[in-house]
What does this fold into?
Amino acid sequence: MAQDNLAPPKVKAKAPKKASAKEASAEQTKDLGWPRSKKEIAEILSFLRSAYPKARCGLDFRDGFELLMATILSAQCQDKTVNLATAKLFKRFPDARSLAKADLAEVEDCVKICGFFRQKAKSLVDCAQNLVARFGGKTPGTLEELVTLRGVGRKTANVVLGNVFGIPGLTVDTHVKRISFRLGLTKNVEPERIELDLMDQIPKDLWIDFSHQVIAHGRTLCQARRPLCSQCQLTLCQART
Ligand code: SF4
It folds into this structure.
């Protein structure tokens, strides 16, 4: 049975991951309200809830296996592209056992519309083989087990835990990373540290919805290059352009 996901990310005390020049520049030059007061956090949460009440996972899946594979494919790839690829993939390989025995070229053919498809196809087969060898073909329900699978990091694990098992987790993808920084919910650029900052500030029962709502905000208004600030009601945002 799935266990509650209480394990916070492990953040190395020394030598944190080097930020890109762009990230470092943003980090060094801006103070966008960190740390936010409880009142400000409540305002942000209220805005997200009212603006994106139906925000859900954009990946198509029927069970843990399908969401795990779809999330592995979703790195640097749009959900609609992943959904096209997985429709073909799951028709041919409906479960971990069939995918574990798959010919790699066939898997590559199914997912070739996704970026880095060769590397991802290898991760899919390897992950499926691990699921069969170590978990009887089932998708495990703990973060500790999920992150031992090939192609699965904390982000992917939290997506699966939240959407399949209902276990609270924060998905720090590119949208959550960018918007958390813009909203002054973090001053860090590394996903593990951002996750810790958010865990401290966002009530645990809202983690799953918060992740979906921020991702929806990133796709509709708070886009990376040209955020549509004139249409955004978050007046406290100091990144407003
Ligand atoms: S005001 Fe602009 S930068 Fe701030 S959250 Fe809204 S869209 Fe994003």
